[in-house]
């Protein structure tokens, strides 16, 4: 096993061979990340005492180390103060990843003039031109290096991305599959295959590809975030928290990562008290159980459907009086409902008491015709993110009317529905002049 501290601190040179050894060591043993972090700290200390010429070499080593640790912004600062083809090439990659396309092209020009492999430089240029929507230039560069198709995963990756941008998804998948045949560890390709499976709803395949991508340094925040969300959707909260926490460690100022990690951690122990003093603890998933999974009379079943009450959680958000004030819902139906809730250690009005909200629930029959038309639109019209859409489907909220009948606390009771999704929903509703119940 390569000693990364010796490789990055003690050895004089840092070249493409050094980078390959560094990457291989990190893939072989994830514990090497800590050693690389220690090496980076040592390099930072040495920078304070060395002469300018030696400082440039240290800036290169430190920039490369930080690149593989996932600290892109800091890596760019050091690579900008280093000389040579390797520094220019990786500086270009980081600029491209941060959306600084013209600056990235300048860096790749420097890398080429300094002697970096022209084929590798042009493949990166092709990616930058694609991001700039200059597809003709991207395709021209790929055509120029068609000889790389026999062995280069990067060539097929860039070709696949270009095909994907042009709407040729099936051909893009073929290109990505060819890329992983040439290099099973190509991170960009693994991420694209994971993302495409994720979009298609093939969660298990997506997780496999994201996990493979996760093993390839530097691990990107997008990989960890998407993987964490998939784990949350499957109720694997410990795995989800591990992913979000890893993003937090590498990007401590990432507010989204902090919220996701908090939501995942809360899901591990999420409970709801029956009232302010009771110690009754109920697993959060119980609130999502369908009412109609239980044996009910035809009358009770029809009344609950008419009131748009679908889950046990819905029943905890209405009072006895609200139910009895509706046509055909009598004492017999009420007793049926109370027995079901009692069996699960729940009761009517429980969530209203816990959340401190009044009885603002309005059955659909009480809405005006204009309100019904406005609220009948499907929740898909809100154009929510993939995660929020999955939450809508899980909660069986097919229409905007069903959504606005819920309070913020009610949504947060649902598995995987965290603060990030809640704020997104609030904003989309605000654009339509609507709000969640109680807001």
Overview features:
single chain, mainly alpha, Serine Threonine Protein Phosphatase 5, Tetratricopeptide repeat, DNA polymerase, domain 1, about 65% helix, elongated
Helix-strand string: HHHHHHHHHHHHHHHHHHHHHHHHHH
Helix content: 55-70%
What structural class do helix, strand and pairing data support? mainly alpha
Radius of gyration: 28 Å
Low-confidence stretches: 269-282, 354-366
What average pLDDT do the residues reach? 83
Largest sheet: none
CATH homology superfamily of the domain at 1-116: Tetratricopeptide repeat domain
CATH fold call of the domain at 1-116: Serine Threonine Protein Phosphatase 5, Tetratricopeptide repeat
Q: What spatial form do the alpha-carbon principal axes imply?
A: elongated
CATH class annotation of the domain at 1-116: Mainly Alpha
CATH architecture of the domain at 1-116: Alpha Horseshoe
Q: What's the count of strands?
A: 0
Share in β-strands? under 5%
User: What is the terminal-to-terminal distance?
Assistant: 59 Å
Number of helices: 26
Q: How would you characterize the overall build of this protein?
A:
By secondary structure, the chain is mainly alpha-helical. Among the domains are: 1-116, Tetratricopeptide repeat domain (Serine Threonine Protein Phosphatase 5, Tetratricopeptide repeat), CATH 1.25.40; 284-355, DNA polymerase, domain 1 (Orthogonal Bundle), CATH 1.10.150.20; 367-431, 5' to 3' exonuclease, C-terminal subdomain (DNA polymerase, domain 1, Orthogonal Bundle). Helices cover 64% and strands 0% of the residues. The protein has 26 helices and no strands. Helix 5 (72-79) runs antiparallel to helix 6 and helix 12 packs antiparallel against helix 13 (203-214). The chain is elongated. The N and C termini lie far apart (59 Å). Residues 269-282 and 354-366 have low confidence and may be disordered.
């Amino acid at each position: 096993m390569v000693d990364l501290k010796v490789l990055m601190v003690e050895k004089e040179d840092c070249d493409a061979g050094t980078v390959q050894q560094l990457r291989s060591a990190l893939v072989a043993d994830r514990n090497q990340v800590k050693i690389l972090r220690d090496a980076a700290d040592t390099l930072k200390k040495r920078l304070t005492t060395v002469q300018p010429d030696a400082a440039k070499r240290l800036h290169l080593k430190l920039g490369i180390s930080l690149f593989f640790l996932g600290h892109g912004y800091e890596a760019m600062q050091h690579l900008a103060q280093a000389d040579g083809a390797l520094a220019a090439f990786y500086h270009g990659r980081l600029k491209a990843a941060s959306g600084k396309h013209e600056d990235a092209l300048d860096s790749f020009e420097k890398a080429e003039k300094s002697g970096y492999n022209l084929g590798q430089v042009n493949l990166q240029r092709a990616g930058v031109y694609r991001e700039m929507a200059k597809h003709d230039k991207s395709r021209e560069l790929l055509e120029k290096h068609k000889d790389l198709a026999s062995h280069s995963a990067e060539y097929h990756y860039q070709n696949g991305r270009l095909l994907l941008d042009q709407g040729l998804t099936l051909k893009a998948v073929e290109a990505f599959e060819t890329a992983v045949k040439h290099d099973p560890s190509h991170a960009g390709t693994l991420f694209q295959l994971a993302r495409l499976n994720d979009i298609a709803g093939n969660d298990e395949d997506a997780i496999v590809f994201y996990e493979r991508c996760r093993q390839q340094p530097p691990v990107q925040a997008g990989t960890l975030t998407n993987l964490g969300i998939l784990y949350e959707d499957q109720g694997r909260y410990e795995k989800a928290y591990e992913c979000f926490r890893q993003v937090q460690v590498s990007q401590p100022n990432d507010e989204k990562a902090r919220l996701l990690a908090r939501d995942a951690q809360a899901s591990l122990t999420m409970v709801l008290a029956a009232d302010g003093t009771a110690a009754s603890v109920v697993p959060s998933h119980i609130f999502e159980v369908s009412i109609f999974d239980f044996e009910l009379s035809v009358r009770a079943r029809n009344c609950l459907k008419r009131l748009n009450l679908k889950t046990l959680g819905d029943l905890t958000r209405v009072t006895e009086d609200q139910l009895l004030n509706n046509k055909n819902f009598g004492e017999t139906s009420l007793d049926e409902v109370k027995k079901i809730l009692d069996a699960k250690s729940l009761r009517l009005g429980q969530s209203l008491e816990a959340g401190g909200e009044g009885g603002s629930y309005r059955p659909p029959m009480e809405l005006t015709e204009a309100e019904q038309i406005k609220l009948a639109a499907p929740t898909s019209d809100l154009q929510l993110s993939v995660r929020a859409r999955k939450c809508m489907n899980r909660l069986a909220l097919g229409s905007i009317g069903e959504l606005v009948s819920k309070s913020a606390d009610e949504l947060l009771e649902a598995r995987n529905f965290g603060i990030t999704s809640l704020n997104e929903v609030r904003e989309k509703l605000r654009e339509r002049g609507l709000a969640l119940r109680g807001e």
